[in-house]
Amino acid sequence: MFYEAGHGDLLTSDAESIVLKDYLSLYEKNLACHFVARDGQTLVASVGAFVKNDLPFRYFEPPRYGFLGDVYTEDRYRGIGIATTLSIHALNWLKLRNIRMVRLFASEAARPIYESLGFTNTDEMALQLET
C-alpha cells in the first residue's frame, strides 16, 4: 500500500515489524479495527479504522479523532463498491466510539469514494523537505 501511494521510499528497513507491534498494541486497546473483503480465501480489499489523539487534536474537545487507513482494493475488484462498503463499516465502528471527526489521506483515484461519503478538503497542507 505504501508503495502504491508513492511513499515506499520513506519506509524504514524494519517497518514491517514496527507496524505489527503498533497494530497489536492498538488492537489490544480497542483503538483499531480492520474490515476486509474476501473472494474465497483471497483477501481482495481492506479498510482500517483507527482512534487517534495526536497533536494538536489532543487539545480539542473531544481530544481524539478517527482515521481511515490501510485502504486497498485489488485491481480486478475495483469499481464495484467494495471500498465504499468497507469504509461505511469503518465509519460506523468509529461512530460507536463517539468519534465526531474522521481524517484520511486520499489518493486521486479514491477521492470520489470519500466525497460520496461526505468527506471534504480541509485546510491541511504538506511539504516534503529535502535533507
Number of helices: 3
The 3D shape can be described as globular
The proportion of residues forming helix, as a percent range, comes to 25-40%
Mean pLDDT: 92
Query: What's the CATH H-level homologous superfamily?
Result: Gcn5-related N-acetyltransferase (GNAT)
Unreliable spans are none
From the alpha-carbon coordinates, what is the Rg to the nearest angstrom?
Answer: 15 Å
Could you please say which CATH topology applies here?
Aminopeptidase
CATH architecture: 3-Layer(aba) Sandwich
Spatial order of strands in the largest sheet: 1-2-3-4
Q: Give the beta-strand count.
A: 4
Main sheet record: 4 strands, mixed
Q: How many discrete structural domains?
A: 1
What pattern of helices and strands is seen along the backbone?
Answer: HEEEHEH
What portion of the residues fall into strands of 2 or more residues? 15-25%
- The CATH class assignment is Alpha Beta
Protein name: N-acetyltransferase domain-containing protein
Domain N-acetyltransferase: 1-131
Pfam family, one: Acetyltransf_1
GO molecular function: acyltransferase activity, transferring groups other than amino-acyl groups
